[in-house]
């Protein structure tokens, strides 16, 4: 039986600064990055350069578990990241993917500390929720 999965991704996008420069400035290697104009899957170019870190897609019934993992990754570079975001007027994005299986929706509650962490980085948040069909035999 499939289980509900959750993945969290923190993204910096920019036309002005390269992914390599972001990594150098904040001393953190991304899980994925790309440069504006690079071809994606042999079809489309990236519209902007981007730099991102993410969690694995994991079975979870609490979104906060994955958000805490992103915070743990970013915390050692927090001040450098904040300075970079302010200098280049970047708009960070926290994107959370939720795929609900068998009607088992995860908790979607964030603590004050989690909200404060991302607010201090001027982060936008996006929650993509997909509910796969299931048969409720009750």
Structure explained in plain terms:
- The chain has 138 residues and is an alpha+beta fold.
- It has one domain.
- It has four helices and eight strands.
- The strands form two sheets. Strands 1, 2, 5, 6, 7 and 8 form a six-stranded mixed beta sheet that branches. The protein has a two-stranded antiparallel ribbon with strand order 3-4.
- Helix 4 links the parallel strand 7 (93-100) and strand 8 (124-131).
- The two termini are 17 Å apart.
- 22% of the residues are buried.
- The mean pLDDT is 93.
Low-confidence stretches: none
* String of helices and strands: EHEEEEEHHEHE
Count of β-strands:
8
Bulk shape: globular
- Structurally, how many domains make up the residues? 1
- Main beta sheet: strand number and arrangement? 6 strands, mixed
Mean pLDDT: 93
Can you summarize this structure?
The protein is of the alpha+beta class. The protein contains 4 helices and 8 strands, in the order βαβββββααβαβ.
Keywords, please?
single chain, 138 residues, alpha+beta, six-stranded mixed beta sheet, two-stranded antiparallel sheet, 8 strands
């Amino acid at each position: 039986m499939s289980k509900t999965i959750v993945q969290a991704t923190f993204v910096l996008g920019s036309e002005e600064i390269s992914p390599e420069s972001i990594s150098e400035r904040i001393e953190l290697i991304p899980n994925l990055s790309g440069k504006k104009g690079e071809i994606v899957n042999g079809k489309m170019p990236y519209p902007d350069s981007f730099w991102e870190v993410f969690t694995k897609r994991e079975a979870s019934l609490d979104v906060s578990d994955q958000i805490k993992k992103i915070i743990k990754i970013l915390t050692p570079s927090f001040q450098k990241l904040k300075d970079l975001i302010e200098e280049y007027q970047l708009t960070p994005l926290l994107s959370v993917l939720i795929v609900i299986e068998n009607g088992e929706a995860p908790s979607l509650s964030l603590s004050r500390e989690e909200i404060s962490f991302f607010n201090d980085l001027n982060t936008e948040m996006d929650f993509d929720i997909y509910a796969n069909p299931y048969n409720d035999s009750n």
